[in-house]
């Protein structure tokens, strides 16, 4: 587990140039962004109450991450979080992550390389820089009127400022959040090609505070639009995913009558269920992807479910090799306990599948191996020899791995 924590911290440092516990918890799937928003708007007292998983385990993970950074010589800085200004009753109010003093302090520390600290530029235009910082802070704080006020001052102070056009686009986008979408395709293009790169460049990690409401605005416009495989991104399951609204993604996929026969929808369904900690449902969709669309199997090397990603990496190193379609069966070899949560493929009703078209594409070898592993977990020995003989006939290579796998 320590190695996994170090790997995750290294990934955050590589992508973001610093470590913040907030990003760690989001990346680990311990925190939903919607709960973070509720905390920042003052609706939630302590953010740690909304975390997924064992509190002691999460606290230990954060401690391990901090100790790792300290060993590397990274420099700690104190972070502060306040209620977003337009939600504050009177003035600003500091937020607490936890009632636990140590855990609260740990959440409010970030780590950077000492040499990466910004240096004072004596030749910079101090008033313009101050206004630029004020505009970006107002956008991060979801305060469009303040962003517009400071932008107008920047126009007066430095009318030739190189960032004026970019800032204008972002402030306009923030001001237009309550307007209706007239052309969903045009809005999607603007979000993908212009607003996202601009926001990420100017606001960094905090660009989510601006972009997620924009994605939700587009989601509202796509709520009743059916899925078209020729335009897969013009669908609620895509825009809700960009807004980190995973329950909306799941529901949007399942509303499509033939969702399990489309690779894109299967992936979105699996990813959303992973984020919602619905392990069995997520695995069912990952398995369906392997069986129906083996050419898409490589996506498993990049998914957020680190344990499934690790199992996929081990699968690719098998000798003799197995095809993508056999990965679900091999996973049952590696983790027989999954038969406790995965449905029996021989008795898997359409209602259990969550769709009117509940027929799965699982091969016969998976059904046989499921029965073998299920009986093993339940300490049953009935028909074991017959099942082994059937598996050998159905998939001789998989049977070799069955025999070689420790039991």
Overview of this protein structure:
- With 407 residues, the chain is mainly alpha-helical.
- Among the domains are: 2-115, no CATH class; 257-404, no CATH class.
- The chain is 57% helix and 2% strand.
- It has helices at residues 2-16, 21-27, 33-40, 55-71, 101-107, 126-140, 144-157, 164-175, 184-203, 208-222, 236-242, 246-254, 263-275, 279-292, 306-316, 327-334, 350-353, 364-377, 384-394, 396-404, and strands spanning 75-78, 109-112.
- Strands 1-2 form a two-stranded antiparallel ribbon.
- Helix 10 (208-222) packs antiparallel against helix 11 (236-242).
- The longest helix is centred in the middle third of the chain and has 20 residues, at 184-203.
- The chain is globular.
Major sheet characteristics = 2 strands, antiparallel
Structural class: mainly alpha
- Whole-number mean pLDDT: 90
State the distance separating the first and last CA atoms: 24 Å
The geometry reads as: globular
Number of strands: 2
**Unreliable stretches covering 5 or more consecutive residues:** 117-124, 349-358
Which sequence of strands runs across the widest sheet?
1-2
Number of helices: 20
Using only CA atoms, what is the Rg? 25 Å
The percentage of residues in β strands lies in under 5%
H/E element order: HHHHEHEHHHHHHHHHHHHHHH
What level of helicity do the residues show?
Answer: 55-70%
Structure keywords:
407 residues; mainly alpha; two-stranded antiparallel ribbon; 57% helix; globular
Give a summary of the structure in a few sentences.
The protein has helices at 2-16, 21-27, 33-40, 55-71, 101-107, 126-140, 144-157, 164-175, 184-203, 208-222, 236-242, 246-254, 263-275, 279-292, 306-316, 327-334, 350-353, 364-377, 384-394, 396-404, and strands at 75-78, 109-112.
């Amino acid at each position: 587990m320590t190695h996994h924590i170090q790997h995750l911290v290294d990934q955050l440092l590589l992508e973001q140039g610093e470590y913040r516990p907030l990003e760690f918890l989001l990346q680990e799937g311990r925190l939903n962004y919607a709960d973070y928003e509720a905390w920042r708007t003052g609706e939630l007292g302590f953010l740690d109450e909304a975390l997924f998983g064992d509190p002691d385990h999460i606290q230990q993970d954060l401690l391990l991450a901090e100790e790792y950074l300290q060993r590397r010589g990274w420099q700690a800085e104190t972070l502060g979080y306040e209620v977003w200004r337009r939600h504050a009753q009177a003035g600003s109010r500091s937020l607490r992550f936890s009632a636990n003093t140590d855990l609260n302090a740990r959440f409010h520390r970030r780590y950077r390389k000492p040499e990466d600290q910004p240096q004072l530029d004596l030749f910079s235009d101090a008033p313009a820089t101050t206004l630029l910082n004020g505009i970006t802070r107002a956008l991060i704080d979801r305060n469009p009127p303040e962003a517009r006020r400071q932008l107008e001052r920047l126009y007066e102070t430095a009318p030739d400022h190189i960032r004026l056009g970019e800032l204008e686009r972002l402030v306009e986008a923030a001001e237009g959040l309550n307007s209706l979408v007239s052309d969903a395709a045009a809005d999607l293009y603007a979000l993908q090609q212009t607003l996202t790169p601009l926001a990420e460049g100017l606001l960094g990690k905090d660009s989510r505070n601006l972009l997620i409401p924009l994605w939700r605005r587009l989601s509202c416009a796509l709520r009743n639009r059916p899925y078209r495989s020729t335009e897969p991104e013009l669908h609620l399951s895509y825009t809700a995913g960009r807004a980190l609204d995973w329950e909306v993604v799941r529901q949007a996929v399942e509303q499509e009558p033939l969702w399990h026969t489309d690779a894109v929808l299967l992936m979105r369904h699996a990813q959303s269920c992973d984020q919602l900690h619905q392990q069995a449902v997520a695995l069912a969709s990952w398995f369906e992807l392997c069986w129906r669309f083996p050419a898409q199997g490589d996506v498993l090397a990049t998914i957020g479910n680190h344990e499934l990603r690790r199992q996929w990496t081990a699968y690719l190193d098998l000798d003799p090799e197995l095809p993508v379609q056999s990965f679900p069966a091999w996973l049952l070899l590696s983790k027989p306990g999954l038969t406790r949560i995965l449905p029996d493929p021989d008795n898997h009703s359409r209602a259990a599948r969550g769709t009117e078209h509940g027929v799965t594409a699982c091969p016969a070898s998976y059904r046989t191996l499921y029965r073998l592993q299920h009986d093993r977990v339940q300490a049953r020995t009935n028909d074991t020899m017959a099942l082994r003989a059937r598996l050998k006939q159905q998939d001789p290579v998989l049977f070799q791995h069955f025999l070689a796998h420790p039991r």
